[in-house]
Structure formats: C-alpha cells, structure tokens
Amino acid sequence: MMEIRLLDFALGGMFGLMLGVALAWLTGRLRAWLGRSEAARLARENRELKRRLAEKDRHISRMLAETERLAERLGRQKVPQADILKAQAE
Question: Where does the chain cross the membrane (predicted)?
Fold first, then answer.
C-alpha cells in the first residue's frame, strides 16, 4: 500500500495551486486578446447600431401613433365650410 507523506501532499497542493493560478491568468490574457480583435470590435459595434436602430424605430412608431391620433381627432371636429373656402382663397 502506498503512503502519502505530508511533504508530498504539500508539494502537490502548491503545484496544483500554482498551476491553477497560471491557467486562470492565461485564460484572462487570452480573453483580453480576443476581446480586442477586429471581429469582436465589429460585433460590439453591430450590437450598438442594432440597439440604436430599435430605439429610433420605437420613437418613430410613437410619433406616428400620435400623429394618427391627432388627425383622427381633427377629422372628428366640424370645420365650418366658410373657413375652408376662405383658406382656399388665400
């Protein structure tokens, strides 16, 4: 039967800890490097442009709905015929 000595256990633990720290650091560096790539920059810019376009579409939809509501309200109001003829003459 194999006996694990305290020194072997401590060395293994320290080696594992150093390996874990090194891999975490390497992963962070790799992600940072990939994050600065041209493809990542273009993808980020594309997301921003899509968000802004959706925001503008919502604004245009609100303005169109408001215009339609105002036109409907004005259409229900009775405009005297004399005012229409006077406006056409001018």
Answer: 6-26
